Structure formats: structure tokens, C-alpha cells
Amino acid sequence: MTTLITLVRKLAGSLGRLIVRPAAAHCDTADGPAVLDGRRALDLGNVNIALKWVRAEDETEVRAAFERAGRVRAAGGEAASLADQWFLENLVRIHRAGEGAGYDGIKPSGTVMPPQVRAADEALDQGTIEPLRGLIEAPRWAELEKRFNHALALKNFDADDLVAARGYMDAYVSFFKYAEGHDHGHDHASHAHGHAAGGCGHH
Fold first, then answer.
1. Spatial separation of the C-alpha atoms in residues 105 and 90, rounded to whole Å
2. pLDDT tens digits, 29-73
3. What are phi and psi of 158, to 5 degrees?
4. What sign for the dihedral angle of Cα 156, 157, 159, 165?
5. Smaller CB count within 10 Å for the chain: N or C?
6. What is the DSSP string of 60-109?
7. Which residues contact 45 (CB under 8 A, 6 or more apart)?
């Protein structure tokens, strides 16, 4: 047990040295969607739940981290907790690297997010765009609604269908970026594979 805990602590320490630069993102908070999916993947033993957050070319690295964490967490106790955290840190780091963004660790639960981000999350959870009403300028509403409907239509994908999962992520990013005002274009095609280039869309 001591050896396992020491190993995970060393891995966590080495991860800390990979920090590039400060960055703010919804997906790097403890209660954000990437971390929640990572926890679900660990609890259910299905890495595919987390893989939609990384590019296809980064799958191998995430799968290896998942398998290694699974072996360590089987010991239970502190080892399991440390293994989970190590995997989540790697998942978010790799996701952020795929965006071309820096990584400064997973931010704590309750980290304050812009109201548009909270409302966009609520909209997708509830299946209605209404939580965003009043937060987006009227001239931008039609495009926002178009992107919301596109994301919502792709939301109920099979977790093991990574093509469909990443298709949803592209739509998800496009919707969030527009909700935040960072993307004023109207060409959805320009956002293909946006989860790799724009991540959660919350910078």
C-alpha cells in the first residue's frame, strides 16, 4: 500500500511540473463537465466516457493513464483517492493541451463562472434555451438558438460511439463560445473539431 501511495504521489508531482501558464476554463474546475465525466468513467470503469474531451490522437495517453489509475485505485483508501485525482489532472491537462491552452491545475468546486456559462449549462441540462434569455444581445439570439438546437439534437449519444461523442463536443463548444461572445461568426463548418481548438469554449 505504501509503495502504491508513494508512486501516485510521485506521478502527481511530475504532473505539476507540466504546468504551462495560467488559464481559466469551465472544464478545469472540480465541478465542471470534464472532471465530472472523468469521475463517471472511473466509477463505471469505462474510459470512453472521458475520451470525448480529448483529440483522437491523444486517446492512447488517456487510456494508459486510465488503466494505470485503475490498477492503483483497486487498493482502495488513500491510494484510490490519489489515483483518481491523478487521472483527472491528466485528463484535463491533455484536454487543455489539445486546445493549445495552458494548465494550472483543477480549480476547486464553486469557482465563479460567468453567468452566460452557468446559463448555457442549465440550458443544455433542461433542454430549453430560456436560462440564457436576457443575457445575450437580441441581434445574436437567432444564431445562439441555432447552435443550441444543434447541440441539443446531438446530446443523447452512445458513450462508446466516440465519433458521435466528438460530434456533440464540436456543437457544444460552438454553442458555448457564441454564448460567451467569443465567436461572432456564423459558419458552423469553421468549428469542426472545435473541442480540440476551442475546448470547453470557456477561456
1. 10
2. 898 999 999 999 999 999 999 999 999 999 999 999 999 999 999
3. -75, 125
4. negative
5. N
6. HHHHHHHHHHHHHHTT-HHHHHHHHHHHHHHHHHHHHHHHT-----PBPT
7. 70
